[in-house]
Amino acid sequence: MEYVIRTENLEKIYISKGKGLFRRKKREVHALKGIDFQVKKGEIFGLLGPNGAGKTTLIKILTTLLLPTSGRARVNGYDVIKEERKVRASIGCMLMGERGLYWKLTGRENLEYFGALYYVPKKRRRERIEYLIELLDLGDFIDRTVETYSSGQKMIVSFAKALINDAPTLFLDEPTIAMDVHAARKLREIVKDLNKQGKTIIYTTHLMHEADELCDRIAIIDKGEIKAIGTPAELKASIRQEGIVRIEGIIPQKALEALRSMGSVEKLAVEEKGGKEHLRIITANSRSALPEIIRVLVENESTLEYISPEEPTLEDVFVKLTGRTLSEDTREINEPEPDKSR
Amino acid sequence: MSLSRINPVNSLLLTLHVTKVRFRILSRYKGWFAFDFIFPIVFAALPILIGVSVAGGPGNAARAFKTNTGTSNYVIYLLIGSIVMMTVETSMWLVGYWLRWEREVGTIESIYLTPARRIQILTGVSLYSGMRSIFTFVGSYTFGCLLFGINPFQGEMLIAMLFLIAGLMPMWGIGFLYGAFILKVREAGSLINILGWGMAFLMGAYYPITVFPVTIQYLALAFPPTWMTNGIRSSLLHLSYFLGAWHWDLGVLVLYSIVMPLIGIWVFTAVEHRIKRNEGVGKF
């Protein structure tokens, strides 16, 4: 078996100093704790994890932006510490979304510049840019300066930038994040085509359906550790014998607490949408647990609008492993905390 | 197999492409022309006009100026000081501030993800900075002289150009030191401003350094811009060189040209490695 990425006991500790003139205490954050995994040649490998789980740190180490505190990693056969230039020449990356472009240059000038920084010979660079313009349908805006682009246009040019050196391995970090549904679908199709051409793709996303659709294998990362790794089917099968119950309605806090204290409830994730609570409950056996769950909710003054047992999804795997939904975690980052002092 | 072909030709083309892209970006900021050409003249005009006012007329000003500096051509003297000061400032900012700028526009990590050697990119930025500085110097000097009604073609112009070119190279070294400092400290803008003005004070932009106490004079001589300013002035206005002959003064600048970039690159690389071991280059 040929592996494109191999890591051995990869650790990363961030050290920061406290503020103040005197006695500046050092603070250590253990971002990665002994990461071991391999990515096979030709697969689309997904990295799933909430913000702060360590997936960005892991990708930065694999792409040589960061040095690990300990452990080893090889990408395309090259050591990320000792052979960083060879690693970089052999990969294409889209890590910063729309922020990785020069806004005063046109899209074409950006691609030419990054092509030069990848040492792509001028003639091959020009041909490659023309090919990418056609492949990604950039013709309408490629000769305008990037400052005039929409977020989606910046993202697609950033994606083109990742393809400029036609590297065998691609690192794509949330590539569809600022795209509309149509553009995101198209990009996923292109990713699949690139994979069929033999490219290995490391793909991070917080969209479970995207991971499910694209990835051959997925690693779920939380708190610096790989919690599970496998194909989407394997991950879902790991909780298939258990039961998933989806409930929507107006559910007060005391009802949630009562549910959490039930022995048959393994994990409970709550999302608030449109003034209603959406619950996903993982139980040891949904058929036997459901009547008890309904009784507890009704006794605690819940108004139930929808109850349904469901097939497990990657989201359920994520909930079981981390105790929270991925969208819940994203919401925590995007929305300010309510003022609890009032 | 990627399309990357790392070889000397592509490395050279990469460096030239960096220079070209910097000029292209510059061309899209319409105010650069005013900043590069007009500001040095404005900075020179202030002391010229104050001097004339205080002395009671251009003739008196020339006589008084000659007593202290050895030349009555105070317009060119001050114009050179002002332009060199701005050139030094711009040169250090362009190289040193390059990283900060890339960080602000969000492209620093994109650059660090490519196999391009940092030294090749920095050389491209330095080349741009040098070309822009020479262009600025020649343009401002000629335009300033014409504005004040003075013949710009006087003195040893070729030697003055040698001093200008040799004086810019140590600036790149100092620029790399600035770059390392910015990489480490991040919000270093105000401190860099203070250091820039400190250097302008010591290099004798508007006066000969002989007006300083002896200890400060030695401190001033430790800075390459002091040698650069004096060399250009002496060659154009037939003033005395620090070491008696132009080639000795130029030799000192050449020495600085070798040592300062080496020190700058060494410090920059060390700081860069240290940062990669912790939080990474893109964070600010």
Describe the protein.
The complex is a heterodimer of chains A (342) and B (284). With 342 residues, chain A is α/β, with parallel strands linked by helices. Chain A has 2 domains: 182 residues, P-loop containing nucleotide triphosphate hydrolases (Rossmann fold, 3-Layer(aba) Sandwich); 68 residues, 2-Layer Sandwich (Alpha-Beta Plaits), CATH 3.30.70. Chain A contains 12 helices and 14 strands. In chain A, the strands form 3 sheets. Chain A has a 6-stranded mixed beta sheet with strand order 6-7-8-3-9-10, sandwiched between helices. In chain A, strands 2-1-4-5 form a 4-stranded antiparallel beta sheet. In chain A, helix 3 crosses helix 4, helix 3 runs parallel beside helix 5 and helix 9 runs antiparallel to helix 10. The longest helix of chain A has 16 residues. Chain B has 284 residues and is mainly α. Chain B has a domain of 177 residues. Chain B has 11 helices and no strands. The radius of gyration of chain B is 20 Å and the shape is elongated. The model of chain B has no long low-confidence stretch (mean pLDDT 84).
Give the total of domains of chain A.
2
Number of strands of chain A: 14
Strand content of chain B: under 5%
Describe the oligomeric state of these chains in a short phrase.
heterodimer
CATH uppermost class of the largest domain in chain A: Alpha Beta
Mean pLDDT of chain A comes to 85
What characteristic shape of chain B results from the CA principal axes? elongated
CATH architecture of the largest domain in chain A: 3-Layer(aba) Sandwich
Helical content of chain B (DSSP H or I, runs of 4+): over 70%
**CATH topology grouping of the largest domain in chain A:** Rossmann fold
Beta-strand content of chain A? 25-35%
Show unreliable segments of chain B: none
Content-based structural category of chain A: alpha/beta
H/E element string of chain A? EEEHEEHEHHHEHEHEEHEHEEHEHH
